[in-house]
Amino acid sequence: VNGKVQIPVVVNVLYRTTAENISLAQIQSQIDVLNRDFNATNSDFNQVPSLFAGVKANVGISFVLEAVYRKATTKTSWGTNNAMKIASQGGIAPTTPTTRMNLWSCTIGGGILGYAQFPGGSSSTDGVVIDSKYLGTTGTATFPFNLGRTGTHEVGHWMNLRHIWGDATCGSDLVSDTPTHNAANSGVPAYPSYSTCSGNPVEMTMNYMDYTDDRGMYMFSNGQKSRMAAVFVSGGSRASFRL
Ligand code: ARG
Ligand code: ZN
Ligand code: CA
């Protein structure tokens, strides 16, 4: 990243049950994971296979928790239509989304762990949503998604990263140093896992933008780093986050 990027984070908690009203410690544990995963200080970074040693990245972006807003609700699940971001629908509107990353914690439902808005969208819905059961590493965080990697993955999307399989059979993630995957991976694939796509490359299943369990993902690539950095350069869609 050209010039330091630091992301102030505003967390918006929507809760019906006391369990959904997650603790500050759980919220901070998610911020801590983001700081480790985006700065290559995650303890599993050294598990990256030597095949990918040349492309594993220290993204160099940091996160600071700035505020937590909480609101009670009667909703049992929120879905993915952004209602949690709209006050008139019982949600919490984002706080200054052009200079802060807003993160909503709620029950999404439908087996969805989280979702994010790509750069360039409406600021009124900008940010990431993480189901409270998959947020951070403590409290209600639930195995096998209890290492905060849903947050890492969603923030990757928020910084313009696509899924590593390109959301299509042998699709493209628009990043050249990540191998072409035939489809999403799940669980914790044994290494090496070969792609069925052209050339049968070894898949980078340990990339944060695949769909493995949290303990199966522990790297971004240099190409992904460049794609994220482009969002923050002067003139980029999230340039306001540059220090
Ligand atoms: N399904 C979500 C998405 O596509 C997140 C997947 C996160 N994976 C994980 N191991 N936490 O945005
Ligand atoms: Zn995703
Ligand atoms: Ca690729």
Automatic annotation (TrEMBL):
Gene Ontology molecular function, alphabetical: metal ion binding; metallopeptidase activity
Gene Ontology biological process terms, A to Z: proteolysis
Residue ranges of every copy of the Peptidase M43 pregnancy-associated plasma-A domain listed in the record: 114-231
Keyword line: Disulfide bond, Hydrolase, Metal-binding, Metalloprotease, Protease, Signal, Zinc
Domain of life the protein comes from: Bacteria
Keyword presence, Signal: yes
The keyword DNA-binding appears for this protein: no
Family, similarity comment: Belongs to the peptidase M43B family.
Name used for this protein in its record: Zinc metalloprotease
Organism: Flavobacterium sandaracinum
